[in-house]
Amino acid sequence: MVAEKKKEKERLFHLVKRNDIEPWKKWIIRIASVIIAALLAGGIFAVVAKDSAAFGGFFKEMWKGSFGTQRLAYVFTSDWAILMCISLAVTPAFKMRFWNIGAEGQTLAGALGAAIILYYLGGKIVEPVVILFMFAAALFMGMLWAVIPAIFKAIWGTNETLFTLMMNYVAIQLTNFFVNLWTRGTQTTMGNLGNGTIHGILGIPYIQNAVIVAIVTIIIFIYLRYFKHGYELEVVGESQNTAKYIGINVKKVIIRTMLLSGVICGLAGFLLVGGSPTPTINAELVAGRGFTAILVSWLSKFGPLAMIFVTAFVVFLQTGAKQGSNTYHIGASSAYSDIIVGLFFLIIIASEFFLNYRIKFRKKEGK
After folding, report:
1. What pLDDT is stored for residue 89 in this prediction?
2. Which CATH class is domain 72-331?
3. Per-residue confidence (pLDDT) for residue 326, from 0 to 100
4. Where are the domains of the chain?
5. What is the 3-state secondary structure (H, E, C) of the chain?
6. pLDDT greater than 80 at residue 330
7. First to last CA, the chain
8. What are 258-303's pLDDT values in tens digits?
9. The model scores a pTM over 0.85
10. What is the pLDDT of residues 222-232, one digit of tens each?
């Protein structure tokens, strides 16, 4: 009787951890998830546009929005550089299991530092010196915004997720304060700040951001793979007790790693202002890239080289979706692009379930 009741209560299926899935199967699942997401995005596009032809037009507009003209290709490259830079910034902290959710604020703080120098010194001293001061101020502000939560975590064990998240709002309000001060309360964004920008390299506009970030990517890859510091932060991420046992100063590693993350976020902030042909500052300047970078880093398995392609794919989705919504007059282009990127992230992240688990159904009697 007890055995029969146990059978009745037994679930129809349960999850089993995968331990031996072949690499080629992993790639099939990931590629399939991208294809499914693309088909769903095209379908949503056709429904919203109320035009069945828009399904095929969606993919055409995606390409056109990113590479349709030389200028769009330059803008794509610049957008890739900013997102890539912020993704690199959060990666060392995540490998250490320090959940830095404050990249948005750290980047904005860096941009604000550069804007302050540009506003007060631009046109008053020679431009190379202005750019140098902007660069130093941006790195300092980004570093400051990152190291404060790190110190509190290392010394008093505070929750880094909440702390870094709250620092985002402090950066936003501080930016609003300066914009309000400079515009005397008449605007929420500054106009063109003018002098103090890098105007391309070898006569190619926008390319300076990509060149700088490419160099940073190589440095971070080498740092994480071959340097002692990269090894130490991985050990701290795996187990702080183990790290302490083998003589690693955990507090020092936490603070040092967040200093690195803050410096790279500050660099991204500098590029947003100093690497733009029309430098400006407002609270929305980072435009959510700090949060998108978290997903990019995670999908790349914290690998800087894989991050290059994941970042390019995300920017391609964003710029292409904006172009499609403009062509077919689908409301706010930014809102639609956010939906498309969110859809892709949702399906690709969900596919990770099938990489880690399989569904095992209960066998029927006699089988």
Report:
1. 97
2. mainly alpha
3. 79
4. 72-331
5. CHHHHHHHHCCCEEEEECCCCCHHHHHHHHHHHHHHHHHHHHHHHHHHHCCCCHHHHHHHHHHHHHHCCHHHHHHHHHHHHHHHHHHHHHHHHHHCCCCCCCHHHHHHHHHHHHHHHHHHHCCCCCHHHHHHHHHHHHHHHHHHHHHHHHHHHHHHCCCHHHHHHHHHHHHHHHHHHHHHHHHCCCCCECCCCCCCCCCCECCECCHHHHHHHHHHHHHHHHHHHHCHHHHHHHHHHHCHHHHHHCCCCHHHHHHHHHHHHHHHHHHHHHHHHHCCCCCCCECCCCCCHHHHHHHHHHHCCCCHHHHHHHHHHHHHHHHHHHHHHHHCCCCCHHHHHHHHHHHHHHHHHHHHHHHHEEEEECCCCCC
6. no
7. 22
8. 999 999 999 999 999 998 888 999 999 999 999 999 999 998 989 9
9. yes
10. 999 999 999 99
